[in-house]
Amino acid sequence: MNMASILLVEDDTTLAETLMDLLAYEDFHITWVSDGQKALDATFVERFDLMLFDVNVPFVNGFELLKLLRESGDDTPAIFITALTDIASLSQGFEVGADDYLKKPFDFDELLVRINALLKKRFATEKESVAVKEFSFSISKNELYHRGDFVGLSPSELRLCELFFKHLDQTLDKETLLFELGHGEESSEGALRVYINKLRKIGLPIRTLRGIGYRLETA
């Protein structure tokens, strides 16, 4: 699964760092926070493809956190990873909107299977094409169109275009974009700026967040 973004809410630093290392190795983009309030703040800034929640975290526990997000209309797939093993807790987790529930201690390979299953289901239900202003991007064909006309792009420009359209209104940091452009090898910031400028010249509304990265905005 390429470039899927995951919000990890876990107050156990050792476990969080281990999960971050393992998930990053699988090419996931991870945002880690240690309490429920920081998780809420993170969801206001960025849209995630999947969320991993511990239950017993400070300020806003995992159950309350997911309930608040679901009530606000956030349907991002969520997995609880928790030491709570009683049926009442399991039931509560699903009642507040969890898509899956994994008891600690767990095997990482099992977690990975569950993550990929939810992401596959989510991406399979996405629209065939995504529109921004007068542009549309065909997910299945991996092609960009302007007012219905095909727009020819270089492989690197097309890769960036795909990433931006699949992560609308999400900030993509420079390190992630460079990694994707270099297919796992280091690329240059100068080249990235050139590609971004070319996409802007054809009319794509890509915003620069100085010192952070870029965002394709719908409004």
Overview of the molecule:
The protein has 219 residues and is an alpha/beta fold. It folds into 2 domains: 5-124, Rossmann fold, CATH 3.40.50; 129-216, Arc Repressor Mutant, subunit A (Orthogonal Bundle). It has helices at 13-25, 36-45, 62-71, 87-95, 108-124, 155-166, 174-181, 189-201, and strands at residues 5-9, 29-33, 50-53, 78-82, 100-103, 129-132, 135-138, 143-146, 149-151, 172-173, 206-209, 213-216. The relative contact order is 0.10.
What's the structural domain tally?
2
* Major β-sheet annotation: 5 strands, parallel
Point out poorly predicted stretches. Answer: none
Return the CATH topology of the largest domain.
Answer: Rossmann fold
User: What count of helical segments does DSSP give?
Assistant: 8
Identify the strand order in the major beta sheet: 2-1-3-4-5
Helical percentage: 40-55%
Derived from helix and strand composition plus strand pairing, the structural class reads alpha/beta
User: Any idea what the shape is?
Assistant: elongated
Oligomer: single chain
Helix and strand pattern: EHEHEHEHEHEEEEHEHHEE
The CATH level-2 architecture of the largest domain is identified as: 3-Layer(aba) Sandwich
Mean pLDDT across the residues is 84
Return the CATH class of the largest domain. Alpha Beta
Number of strands: 12
Report the β-strand fraction as a percent range. Answer: 15-25%
CATH superfamily of the largest domain: Response regulator
Indicate the radius of gyration in whole angstroms: 19 Å
